Amino acid sequence: MDNKHDILCLLRSVANGETRPEDALLELKEAPFEDLGYAKVDLHRSVRQGAAEVIYGAGKTPEQIAGIAAAMGERGCRNILITRMGKEAADYVASQVPLEYHESPRLGLAFPGERRDLGNIVVATGGTSDMPVAEEAALTAEAMGNHVTRLYDVGVAGLHRLLSNLDVLMQARCVVAVAGMEGALASVIGGLVDCPVIAVPTSVGYGASFGGLSALLSMLNSCASGCSVVNIDNGFGAGYLASRINQMEGLETK
């Protein structure tokens, strides 16, 4: 059982008398996880949370990444996110399983397949240097079935660039604001839109930015209501949260 739909179909099959309860129980007992020795792959993640387990590539060997992805793919998982994966590891993984790799955000998508295109998430950056983190957020959200609009290099040093895209911002269900330096972009956007804003501080900046700490503190102290903040350079976390927010409306109408 790889998702809620599969379990629901199984339960309906039992209710209709097409499947014995004992057989259904066996299928459910086999479902929760697979022990690979070096990893216990959570095959019920999509049932509980609506999305498959995400593989954090940093610290894992290419062989481990490929093994986890292969185990998930064999159980029908598609669009499996692999974050923080270097090019060399990606080359090896691509030789073992189908892989779509994006080098700048170091993000891979194993067993890529059909995706939904729901709602509208806007991902905005203060500058071009913030794009790798922003792309991690945007690609994560797209892999999870969301429509994403990108607004890059619209920081406060040239505020007219942002203001010329007000119509795009106003139509968003959620905005991800990615910025380094002093991190002011999130506060500005938070004061313009009527949807949640997820602020992502980046490590972009000179010495006194302290590797993104200045932007993090600025965003945490934002006077704009409706802004939440994720960790420094955590584009994945922002994209995942934005997906949850964007798809809430669809869940409420089911």
TrEMBL record:
SUPFAM superfamilies: N5-CAIR mutase (phosphoribosylaminoimidazole carboxylase, PurE). This is Nickel pincer cofactor biosynthesis protein LarB. SMART domains: AIRC. It comes from the Bacteria. Residues 119-251 form the PurE domain. Pfam families: AIRC (PF00731). It comes from Gemmiger gallinarum.
